[in-house]
Amino acid sequence: NAGVTQTPKFRVLKTGQSMTLLCAQDMNHEYMYWYRQDPGMGLRLIHYSVGEGTTAKGEVPDGYNVSRLKKQNFLLGLESAAPSQTSVYFCASSLEVGQPQHFGDGTRLSIL
Amino acid sequence: DAKTTQPTSMDCAEGRAANLPCNHSTISGNEYVYWYRQIHSQGPQYIIHGLKNNETNEMASLIITEDRKSSTLILPHATLRDTAVYYCFAGDTGTASKLTFGTGTRLQVTL
């Protein structure tokens, strides 16, 4: 039982490049979330999903897109990366909203 | 959502109880109090949550005041592995977008 797995763990991009971060969970959870964590700012919610085929905006959605084509996967896309998107990205899942969230180990993304 | 206030940092001797306070004076009746922690650069880890009553699990105890304006997370016998940033927040279980982590309390457990 792997829990929440994030791919890749590290990545360096140039400004303007695109990439997709993958989050996979094997707990059959309905809810999935993408956060970013910047120094001194805690975690901020980017987008979330309440079930397969659904997505919704969080606190800081600009510059990101997401998709939830399969219940176990939640993808975070950066179409045109900017240095301001340099951060650590965490994915999480929960059985229902309000239930404990299970987090992955993060993706460290640097944009030059 | 209720704004939470936590001390920036705390120290605790190994083997002693660590008591981490959190103020949430504007909490509403349907908001739970949640505690998570983040060890070094790992993903946050759920610890405990509660609404009104005190709660205990294998990791910690949560004491919520009667007026629900503050709470305390208790680690009964802190170890070096409990050194982490501890986050307290109040969330409405009906709205996923309102679960917001603040900057937390950095707990340093020392020998």
Please outline the helices and strands:
The complex is a heterodimer of chains A (about 110) and B (about 110).
Chain A: E1 4-7, E2 10-13, E3 19-25, E4 31-37, E5 43-49, E6 56-57, E7 65-67, E8 73-78, E9 87-94, E10 102-103, E11 107-111
Parallel strand pairs in A: 2-11
Antiparallel strand pairs in A: 1-3, 3-8, 4-5, 4-9, 5-6, 7-8, 9-10, 9-11
Chain B: E1 9-13, E2 18-23, E3 31-38, E4 45-50, E5 55-56, E6 61-64, E7 70-75, E8 84-92, E9 105-110
Parallel strand pairs in B: 1-9
Antiparallel strand pairs in B: 2-7, 3-4, 3-8, 5-6, 6-7, 8-9
Structure, explained:
The complex is a heterodimer of chains A (112) and B (111). The radius of gyration of chain A is 13 Å and the shape is globular. In chain A, strands 2, 4, 5, 6, 9, 10 and 11 form a 7-stranded mixed sheet that branches. In chain A, strands 1-3-8-7 form a 4-stranded antiparallel sheet, with no helix packed on it. By secondary structure, chain A is mostly beta strands. Chain A is built from no helices and 11 strands. With 111 residues, chain B is mainly beta. In chain B, 0% of the residues lie in helices and 47% in strands. Chain B is built from no helices and 9 strands. Chain B has strands at residues 9-13, 18-23, 31-38, 45-50, 55-56, 61-64, 70-75, 84-92, 105-110. In chain B, strands 1-9-8-3-4 form a 5-stranded mixed sheet, with no helix packed on it. In chain B, strands 2-7-6-5 form a 4-stranded antiparallel sheet, with no helix packed on it. Chain B starts with 8 loop residues before the first strand and ends with a strand. Classes of the chains: A mainly beta (112), B mainly beta (111). At the A-B interface, strand 4, strand 5, strand 6, strand 9 and strand 10 of A face strand 3, strand 4 and strand 8 of B.
